[in-house]
Design brief:
This protein is mostly helical. It is built from four helices and no strands. The model has no long low-confidence stretch (mean pLDDT about 90).
Length: about 130
Amino acid sequence: MVPMFTQLAWFVLVGCAAAATHWLIAVGCVTLWQQPPLVANVIGWLVAFLVSFGGHYCLTFRHQPNSLAVACGRFFLVSATGFMINELSYACLLHMTDIAYDLLLGAILVAVAVLTFILSRGWAFRRRAS
């Protein structure tokens, strides 16, 4: 069994890399290609999913016994759920506040990360019951 602290440390490291990827891609889509923030957020999430799954499968939850396909399918559901919360929160807060879109996105990415860790550890990369 991998100690919780080790998993949490890897989760934070991989999560920071994925969140940075998400944020940079989204902000780049807005500033370089004049995409609306909500569209840019979808593009950022899709690219960041690859970083996130790869890092978590190979580092954070590397001792889990699930096949790549099973883990990817489960993690996609976890990530998509987190993203739905992200996108709905982002849409509401973009309209309800005057907070800059890039700062708002950063705050939401951090808030959704906690939910992602709990669901990833408890279901997506969970060891099978013996």
